[in-house]
Amino acid sequence: MTDTLPAGTDRARRVLLAAPRGYCAGVDRAVVAVEKALEAYGAPVYVRKEIVHNKHVVETLRERGAVFVEETDEVPRGARLVFSAHGVSPAVRDAAVARDLDTIDATCPLVTKVHKEVQRFARDDVDILLIGHHGHEEVEGTAGEAPAHVQVVGSPDEADRVEVRDPARVVWVSQTTLSVDETMETVRRLRERFPLLADPPSDDICYATQNRQVAVKKLAPECDLVIVVGSANSSNSVRLVEVALQAGARAAHRVDRAADVEDAWLAGAATVGVTSGASVPEILVEDVLRLLADRGFGEPEEVRTATEDLMFSLPRELRTGLSRTGGGDDRPRPAERRTLPIRPV
Fold it and tell me: For binding [4Fe-4S] cluster, which residues are annotated in this chain's numbering (predicted)?
């Protein structure tokens, strides 16, 4: 294939690579939890829902012996079940106990923090407005902590239809993987109706989601195209496409893998930005970079806006089990792995 750049364009075809990108600490913890459980106990290890929202990760773990189920009643009594990074409601935990399942809770600690906020506000009998996407697993788990107190607000427009018992006793919390800008617009609209709306005690949108959006905002204005690696059910990946377009990218597309990149997108593109959602292993990004190199793009230039060094310990149940069985190193691993040369901007 031969691409033609716009008339008057004589600069080399560039790749701007966002950093941070890819695996966050919570995702890495959850994936390693399944891997360590398989190593220590052998297959099958059951996982409720997708451990993280990424096709490649799920398929790889399935090949190693993980069995993904929708609900606990699909798991044989007494078997081992991992809860996904998105968290579960108390009702799901009770169902697992009723089936005598040996559970490993891989819920991201930042999601657990929001669950605890909801529990506390519910004890205080406050109306809780949960900003998030209807039907998303994280939202279902969080709302399930106090269904009588929680209303899900899915968009700024939905804020106009919210009703509460006492406008002086209402608080908002949020799904951890949302667009920061859209979330704050929803909060603004809610506060127009409920001036005494209380904020959560700390920011609910996770550090990784915010960092990836900030990095995309920095590179997007220079880009003819931004490629976001991530699966369709990954909320934070989908948001990155929206953020790129809002920040000035001429085009932006989400792909699961390099093979999804269409040559038509690259035609006429002088600068391509590349990033990935928080549940995406670095190998998938590397494949996209190789494809771009094959199409005549230069060595990637890293656009870094933050450095992430947060690491979470593996789930307590797994650490205890590994200690008993001698199942190997129970330490988490660094989330980012790079093998391609990357030149900082």
Answer: 24, 108, 206
**pLDDT at position 329:** 52
**Secondary structure letter of residue 198 according to DSSP:** B
Q: CA end-to-end span of the chain, whole Å? A: 28
Does 24 appear as a known binding residue?
yes
Check whether 235 is labelled as a binding-site residue.
yes
- Mean pLDDT taken over the chain: 92
- CA–CA separation, 84 vs 86, rounded Å? 5
The residues that are catalytic are 138
Is 134 annotated to bind a ligand? Reply is no
Residue 237, marked binder: no
Quick one: 119 and 95 in the same domain? no
Residue 252 lies inside a defined structural domain of this protein = yes
**Which pTM was predicted?**
0.90
Domain containing 288 equals 14-22+207-304
At 236-269, the pLDDT tens digits run 999 999 999 999 999 999 999 999 999 999 999 9
What pLDDT band is residue 109 in, cutting at 50, 70 and 90? very high
DSSP H helices in the chain:
25-41, 55-64, 90-98, 109-123, 137-143, 180-193, 207-219, 235-246, 263-266, 282-294, 316-325
φ, ψ for residue 17, nearest 5 deg: -110, 115
Can you say how many angstroms the Cα of residue 299 is from the centroid of all Cα atoms in its chain?
27
Is 90 exposed, middle or buried (CB count within 10 Å of its CB: 0-12, 13-18, 19+)? middle
Kindly indicate the confidence band of residue 327, based on its pLDDT and cuts at 50, 70 and 90.
low
Tokens describing residue 214 = 């900030």
Give dist(CA 68, CA 196) in Å, integer: 43
Judgement on whether residues 187 and 243 belong to the same structural domain of the protein: no
Please tell me whether residues 161 and 98 are part of one structural domain: no
279 belongs to an annotated ligand binding site: yes
Helix pair angle (235-246, 180-193), 10° resolution: 90
Q: In what order do the strands lie in the sheet with 66-69?
A: 66-69, 45-48, 80-83, 102-105
